[in-house]
Amino acid sequence: MSLHRVATCLVVLGALFPVWLLAQRPATGTAQNHDSLYQYLRHLEPDPAQGATVRNVVLDRDGVRVELEEGTLWLAQPLGDRTVGAMFTGRGRARMAPPSPVEQGQMKLVLGDSTLDAPIDGAFLLFADSTESQLRSLLSFGPINPTSEAKAIAGEAFDYLRLRQEVTVDPGVLLPLLNGTTSDLFYVHVDRSRGGPVILVVDPTERERVQLRTRARGVSAFRATEGVAQFDSRGGPLTGDQAPSAIVAKYVIDTRIDRSAMGEARFSARATMDITSPVAAGPWVPFYLANELEVDSARAADGSALAFYKHKDGSMLWLRLPTPLEPGQTLPVTLHYQGDLIDRYGDFFFIKSSSAWYPRPLESRSHALFDLTFHTPSNYRFASVGELKDSTVTDRVLTTRWVSPAPMRNASFNFGLFEDDYRIDTENGPPVTVFYSDRASREMGIVSISNARERVGQDVSEALRFFTTMFGPLPVKHLYATQIPYAHGEAFPGLIHLSFITFAAKESGRGDFDQFFRAHEVAHQWFGIGVDFATYRDQWLSEGMASYAGLWYTQVAQKKNEYYFDELRRWQADLDVRRNEVGPIALGYRTASPRDGSEYDLVVYRKGAWVVHMLRVLLLDLKTMNDDRFTAALRDFYQTYQGSKASTEDFRRVMERHAGADLGWFFDQWLRTTAMPEYRWAWRTEPAPDGRHRVFLRVEQRGVPDDFLAYVPVTIKLANGGEGRLRVKVTGARTEMELAPMPSEPEDVVFNDLEGVLAKVSKVSW
After folding, report:
1. What percent of the chain has pLDDT over 90?
2. Facing residues of 631 across strands?
């Protein structure tokens, strides 16, 4: 797992090992448990018996280059009989040159240069590869008293290695050390002579295993890191975010939500997981589990107890399988866990984690089968993912069983003191049931729109019908739309969570956004769930596509054309203001900066939606204003990749098939760069000898490379009420052209009609 992808992961020993073990080093090349390894790394120091004078030692790893020119290097105190670290003080250089323009651009944005070539004063190394043997072959080690600088850099490096302020470090670092295996892990923390520390990593748990990180900008409370570059020097297309590792093929989870005497909800669960792996893994394997949950026990299929490790306030669970996994082998494990997952405020229940309420593997986007049973108070409405197979009430306890018909990425649920179920039968799609509580809203000081449940349900049903017509039918047999006491929305297979705000009364004009918001969440049943995205770089195919679909719904189904274009213009203005602060769409979640985070929404959601809009205009038949090619392309994309993961290149191939043209230039410009043109344009006309009129157009293109290309829609409005529509090719700093002659005198020209290109446009005199 890369250093940036783990959010909050405090861990603690599950009361399985005596405290005195923490002070002892293991007798083999591994730690006895997670806590002993954490303590080893936390207190790691140079070994005074293993020092060496260094002259011109070069460590090259997969695009990471560390040159130790002159100084002293100490091997770290051993982990049992294994050396996994080293400290260097002296003079050297750290180098990295990302191969792709996307990563070069991000490095320039964060570090001010597209490559790293920095003098260093010291380095801390952690490794599970051949680094020890290489160092021993190049250097002569013997007793040298460690300097205070060598000790200090190890302590500083640990502060960055630790996940924020938690009692754990990155799983990609821990796995080979905890399991006593060799891997390509190579982690280097260097002190630059100027500019602060940087971290260079080869992490074999990642598909893009080469990483460059630095201290997070704008975050001073703790030593958080920020990703600067990430790539795979070996080349080839990405097929996922993580390298093959242990996953869960099937979950059978029995969950109980009891009501306490004070009316609170007490959560407990038993989860049986079929753990498997396409490669050798374990015996220690990591999972994510909500911070609020505590594991009581872990057992193998024969009932024997398994070692595990989780802090009560941490989000990472380390589980020791009875044996290491062989490729293709499956081991069932049963966990019992419980905790303060749910808070109550009035009639609202705050589920603190909608998708980490069950253990999720390091490859958190892997798909699994789910067999879920829930026991809840019978007066609570309840909904989950999958198909409802059974529902019974015994002794005021509602027991429901939900089974996924096919593997899915994640599962969620919602419950509460909602009003009676409100069901709408959708004409060409699954029925919709809305869970809503007017009383709970009023308890939070929210005044709901009149007939809130019915109006929201109607929007959800109409969006469902519209998208079914446009994209094709869903495999979902029922869609639950449930109110949550949060400001966001979420989508799961057959289940969407809608913010309580979308049920609330709004000032005039805000209803349009609510329709867009509801349709966005419904659209995820097709894009994000029906068609999953292949890697984080393709996440715009979920969020950007859903945002565009929401706009499309408001324009076509709700006939709000003005709102459609107003939103596009507003997003264009936001992007224009921050054009020098954000990265390209291809960075996915990495566009979000630690100090802000809003860049992700701006780029992946809004610019992603703009990309789809521009493709729509590009495929539009300007003579007939017919959208059929675009609609057919999206339908083709959904039906081709439904039930699987799709990449940006997959989407490009589908769009090219329907466009009948190469669109590589389009995808390169709009997804892999931050370029956004500014057009200053003018026009003039003059009579032609045959009674027609000649039209001349001049366009200055600014703010983008000279080879930036766009086919800009132009509409010529004629004095007789007619109009002519065409596309003009704009590239280079200045474009002048004569358009097709018009049959009558032109009255006006609309450049970049239909907002066909994401650009800042201003009209000037000829």
Report:
1. 80
2. none
In the prediction, which pLDDT does 25 show?
34
Which residues, at least 6 apart from 377, have a Cβ–Cβ distance to it below 8 Å?
257, 258, 259, 396, 397, 398
Candidates 187, 154, 155; CA nearest to 170 is 187
Beta-carbon contacts of 350 under 8 Å, excluding residues fewer than 6 positions away, are 342, 343, 344, 485, 486
Q: Whole-angstrom Cα distance, residue 482 to residue 489?
A: 10
pLDDT (tens digit per residue) in 316-339? 999 999 999 999 999 999 999 999
- Find all residues with CB under 8 Å of 525, minimum gap 6, and list them: 464, 467, 474, 476, 479, 491, 493, 494, 496
Phi, psi (deg, nearest 5) at residue 702: -130, 160
The number of angstroms, rounded, from the C-alpha of 68 to the middle of its chain's C-alpha atoms is 37
Report helix, strand or coil for 688: coil
Q: How far, in Å, CA of 650 to CA of 559, rounded?
A: 31
Per-residue pLDDT, 150: 95
Smallest CA-to-CA distance from 103 within 488, 537, 484, 443 is with 537
Please give the share of the chain, as a percent, with pLDDT higher than 70: 94
d(CA 620, CA 726): 11
pLDDT in tens, 248-275: 999 999 999 998 755 678 999 999 999 9
Tell me how far apart the alpha carbons of residues 611 and 535 are, in angstroms, rounded to a whole number: 18
Q: CA separation (Å) from 18 to 15, 167, 286, 517? A: 8, 18, 22, 53
- The mean pLDDT of the chain is 91
The strand order across the sheet containing 369-377 reads 293-300, 330-339, 265-276, 247-259, 369-377, 397-403, 387-394
Alpha-carbon distances of 367 from 357, 360, 469, 611, rounded to whole Å: 16, 10, 27, 28
pLDDT at 89 over 80: yes
Rounded CA gap, 230 and 232, in Å? 7
CB distance 514 to 506 below 8 Å: yes
